[in-house]
Design a protein that fits this description.
Shape: globular
Helix content: 40-55%
Structural class: mainly alpha
Strand order of the largest sheet: 1-2
Oligomer: single chain
Distance between the termini: 5 Å
Strand content: 5-15%
Order of helices and strands: HEEHH
Number of helices: 3
Mean pLDDT: 49
Number of strands: 2
Radius of gyration: 11 Å
Length: 72
C-alpha cells in the first residue's frame, strides 16, 4: 500500500512534503541510500529523492516500465 502512495505522489506532483508522516515505505536500497521512512526520503538531496521515488514506482508496476504486479 505504501508503494501506491509513493507512486501516485511521483506521478502527480513529486511533493513528499505533502505526504502523511506515517506512510510506510518498504526498506530498499537505491542510488546508494537506504530509505526506511518518509523522513529518510525527505533528507535526501532532491535529485536523489526523485530517482528513488521513480524507482519505487517502476518496480511497483505503477509506471508500467518494469513489469511488477502493480497491486497496492
Amino acid at each position: 500500500m505504501g508503494h501506491r502512495v509513493i507512486a501516485e505522489s511521483a506521478v502527480n506532483d513529486a511533493r513528499p512534503d505533502r505526504w502523511s508522516a506515517d506512510v510506510d515505505i518498504v526498506t530498499m536500497v537505491t542510488v546508494g541510500v537506504r530509505v526506511r521512512s518518509v523522513r529518510d526520503y525527505q533528507q535526501m538531496p532532491p535529485d536523489r529523492g526523485l530517482r528513488f521515488i521513480r524507482n519505487v514506482a517502476a518496480t511497483s508496476g505503477y509506471l508500467g516500465n518494469r513489469g511488477g504486479g502493480g497491486e497496492a
